[in-house]
């Protein structure tokens, strides 16, 4: 009977520890996550578009602007609407954890920039594209296929609502993860 108060205290301490962890995770701000993405070498960020166009809306600049508390710029060619957008925090968090937790190394080819299909969620700051996973270029066969499929599954595990890749129209050489 004398041990009962101790057990309650231990249970309470355990709950408080869980709450503290959750609070810490929630406290990670958008700029802080973006800064962390920039600091992880396993996440490579393209500085040009696959189209060859050079502007301030490339993946590296999008994350750099976000880390500085600014909006990410969109491109102004093709169907891209120009202007800028706030990047989705859940998407940024997943991008980071795909490296820090899931241990993927990958190259992000587009975030808010580039020209995509009309109304693309890239323009809403809710999607990113990946062209290389664990050293293999995304493709419809071989390592580029199996690694892409694993990456796609991991994106879904972080809440991506739409994931496209090899086997899907227009995605034979890149993976699209959207929140
Ligand atoms: Zn895409």
TrEMBL record:
Signal peptide: 1-27
Top-level taxon of the source organism: Bacteria
Keyword terms: Signal
UniProt protein name: Peptidoglycan-binding protein
Organism of this sequence: Streptomyces cuspidosporus
């Amino acid at each position: 009977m004398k041990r009962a108060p101790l057990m309650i205290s231990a249970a309470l301490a355990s709950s408080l520890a869980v709450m503290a962890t959750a609070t810490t995770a929630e406290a990670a701000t958008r700029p802080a996550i973006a800064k962390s993405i920039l600091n992880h070498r396993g996440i490579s960020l393209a500085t040009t578009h696959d189209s060859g166009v050079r502007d301030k809306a490339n993946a590296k600049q999008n994350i750099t602007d976000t880390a500085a508390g600014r909006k990410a710029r969109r491109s102004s060619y093709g169907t891209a609407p120009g202007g800028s957008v706030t990047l989705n925090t859940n998407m940024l968090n997943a991008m980071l954890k795909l490296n820090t937790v899931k241990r993927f190394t990958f190259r992000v080819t587009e975030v808010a920039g580039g020209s995509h299909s009309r109304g693309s969620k890239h323009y809403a700051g809710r999607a990113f594209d990946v062209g290389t996973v664990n050293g293999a270029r995304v493709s419809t066969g071989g390592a580029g296929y199996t690694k892409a499929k694993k990456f796609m599954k991991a994106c879904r595990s972080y809440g991506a609502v739409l994931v496209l890749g090899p086997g899907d129209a227009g995605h034979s050489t890149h993976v699209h993860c959207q929140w």
